[in-house]
């Protein structure tokens, strides 16, 4: 594996850079005082902070192109940013780089209700798309819990998911076309508005590329008709493993619910005083299973799911009777993160994905780790997708607790890999899980990722040092994965 230089050396000082950027941007689009750039020092992963050299807020594609040209000329790294809600540090600034925010490109360009598509700029908020197309009886299906704030550009970069992605797919399955600018200034249009596009299908490569291949400047999304009715079941289980098995049973019965989420008792007890969602806080685990469609479809599916859940050992089943009650059941799930913030000074949200049938044993494994690391962990997650979100609670003011939380998180991800899963589901790798990439991938796989990165960005200036670990980073991690008895990077010293 070749060593990849991810720390480019800028060839201009800050003043020269500001002068050059001021030629192409209006004054209000260039932030450089400490007061102005402080809000950009981190994203949702607040444990890591770094002030950038400066922040650019372009208002159109031509300005983005001009910024990229200047940064190329001076070898200055560029970190793209949407709303900064990312949880893996993908938009974390670099000390020698600029932050390029696409928040001001926030126009919905076209809505084609007939074709059920919308073309939007990258800074449009996820929920704003659904709001805008609601008069046509349509909506944009992927619904991250952060949808009120996060942008479609960020969603594309992270391949974001949400409660309804089990049935309707992730961002990848709901985006038809993406326009992006590479660091070299090339305009790329990937995907198409037809069912297939000519040439290699680069859309799945670009979606989920964490701002490392290009700056997204336009996105064409699919829209789906709003279902006539939706109802949700809340099922209580006395045992987490039983609840986990019920998830597998629902899918095995051939049912794809509109949402299939699980919350353990720590989560329901943390959320209930906060939002009064009506949860059974005595249960070891609750499942929320949604059905949507025509009233007849919903009635039939709710009956089938209830039967499967009862057979799996559910001791109580409540079905939302009204739309208000349905929203109340979901409000607890959607507010789980803020609720954790009320009971713990700090928390760390992990994101790993495992085969559904291994859910029970992994939850037991996490419970055992709570004792090993002396920290509490709440589990609230997209159970139908096998996408875990353990919330590790800690107090950063207590010496050693943050480090323990990080080790706890890394151990969970290693367990995910061990059972045949992955180290991320929807939050991306960013800087948070970059070490865990050494556990998941072989050196030649990591080399291939670098080769792809170089094909789009030979100078390695766009969001460098994210998502793909260098050889030395893996060596320093010191916990290199031994897969099938083979020690990886044997030539490197262990630290
Ligand atoms: C309370 C809370 C709940 C959340 N719930 C969910 C959830 O249910 N599901 C889920 O998937 N995520 C969730 N997230 C994570 C986060 O909201 C998503 O990852 C979201 O897609 C990030 O969008 P953003 O606009 O904030 O992007 P940012 O955080 O600003 O950036 C994220 C990444 O995208 C890149 N990027 C941003 N804009 C562009 C662009 N125009 N071109 C190229 N790259 C770009 C950045 O460089 C970075 O790598 C949650 C976060 C919070 C705080």
Automatic annotation (TrEMBL):
It comes from the Bacteria. Keywords: FAD, Flavoprotein, Oxidoreductase. Residues 48-226 form the FAD-binding PCMH-type domain. Gene3D superfamilies: 3.30.465.10, 3.30.70.2740, Vanillyl-alcohol Oxidase, Chain A, domain 4. Its cofactor is FAD. Pfam families: FAD-oxidase_C, FAD_binding_4. The keyword Flavoprotein applies. SUPFAM superfamilies: FAD-binding/transporter-associated domain-like, FAD-linked oxidases, C-terminal domain. Coiled coil: none annotated. This is FAD-binding protein. It comes from Undibacterium squillarum. The lineage of its organism: Bacteria, Pseudomonadati, Pseudomonadota, Betaproteobacteria, Burkholderiales.
């Amino acid at each position: 594996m070749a060593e990849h230089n991810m720390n480019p050396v800028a060839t201009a000082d800050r003043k020269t850079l500001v002068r050059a950027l001021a030629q192409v941007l209006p004054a209000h689009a260039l932030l450089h005082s400490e007061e102005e750039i402080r809000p950009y020092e981190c994203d949702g992963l607040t444990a890591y902070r770094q002030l950038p050299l400066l922040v650019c807020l372009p208002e159109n594609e031509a300005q983005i192109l001009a910024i990229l040209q200047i940064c190329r000329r001076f070898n200055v790294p560029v970190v793209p940013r949407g709303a900064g809600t990312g949880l893996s540090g993908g938009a974390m600034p670099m000390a020698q780089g600029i932050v390029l925010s696409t928040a001001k490109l926030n126009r919905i360009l076209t809505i084609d209700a007939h074709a059920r598509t919308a073309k939007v700029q990258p800074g449009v908020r996820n929920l704003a798309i659904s709001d805008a197309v609601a008069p046509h009886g349509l909506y944009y299906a992927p619904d991250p819990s952060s949808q009120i704030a996060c942008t479609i550009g960020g969603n594309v970069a992270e391949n974001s998911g949400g409660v309804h992605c089990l049935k309707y797919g992730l961002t990848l399955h709901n985006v038809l076309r993406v326009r992006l600018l590479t660091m070299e200034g090339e305009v790329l249009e990937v995907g198409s508005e037809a069912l297939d596009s000519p040439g290699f299908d680069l859309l799945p490569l670009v979606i989920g590329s964490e701002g490392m291949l290009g700056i997204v400047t336009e996105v064409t999304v699919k829209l789906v008709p709003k279902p006539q009715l939706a109802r949700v079941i809340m099922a209580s289980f006395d045992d987490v493993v039983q609840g986990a098995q019920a998830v597998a049973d629902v899918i095995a019965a051939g049912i794809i619910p509109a949402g299939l989420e699980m919350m353990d008792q720590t989560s329901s007890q943390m959320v209930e005083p906060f939002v009064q969602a009506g949860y059974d806080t005595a249960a070891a685990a609750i499942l929320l299973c949604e059905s949507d469609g025509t009233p007849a479809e919903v009635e039939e599916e709710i009956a089938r799911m209830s039967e499967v859940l009862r057979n799996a050992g559910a001791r109580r089943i409540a079905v939302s009777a009204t739309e208000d009650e349905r929203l109340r059941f979901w409000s607890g799930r959607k507010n789980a993160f803020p609720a954790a913030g009320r009971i713990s000074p700090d928390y760390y949200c992990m994101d790993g994905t495992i085969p559904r049938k291994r859910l029970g044993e992994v939850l037991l494994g996490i419970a055992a780790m709570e004792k090993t690391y002396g920290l509490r962990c709440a589990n609230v997650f997209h159970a139908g997708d096998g996408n875990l979100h353990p919330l590790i609670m800690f107090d950063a003011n207590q010496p050693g607790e943050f480090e323990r939380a990080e080790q706890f998180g890394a151990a969970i991800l290693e367990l995910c890999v061990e059972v045949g899963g992955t180290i991320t589901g929807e939050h991306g790798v960013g800087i948070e899980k970059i070490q865990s990439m050494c556990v998941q991938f072989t050196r030649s796989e990591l080399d291939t990722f670098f080769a792809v990165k170089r094909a789009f960005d030979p100078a390695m200036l766009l969001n460098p040092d994210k998502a793909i670990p260098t050889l030395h980073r893996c060596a320093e991690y010191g916990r290199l994965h031994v897969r099938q008895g083979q020690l990886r990077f044997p030539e490197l010293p262990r630290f």
